[in-house]
Amino acid sequence: MKKLILISILCFLFRLLPAPGFTETVILRPEPIYIYNISDPFTRAIFAYESRFKTDAVNKISGASGIGQITHSMIKEVNRILKLQGESKRYSFKDVFDPFKTHEIWCIVQDFHNPEYCYDKACRIWFGTGKQHDGMRWEDYYNEVMEIYYLSN
Description:
The protein is mainly α and about 150 residues long.
């Protein structure tokens, strides 16, 4: 029994000793892995606000769906942009349930309408400029999204 305890103590101490030839141990942190590979913190804040990243989220009032809460009119708009750009790719409403396609749609719309990528303009584009059924305005939306953005950074 004493021999087993001694061996256990020696094994523990051996792990504390540096490897031969090295004076310090460096632990490398891996690059962060972002949900659905969305590295932009502002886009993540939008999608976090819209759906908490739930791919099957559906707004019962507007019909907006997916992690980006995309509407049928947004699908029409992204397809209009693609046509103007001479692209053959088109999206259908079922694509809003695919988080990677939702991110593509976000990027296409923002690159076209907001190439300078201003956060307030991005919110006006995504939310709209009118009031929602509950009285929320785009400015309120912007403030909510920015709160998530600042908390996550």
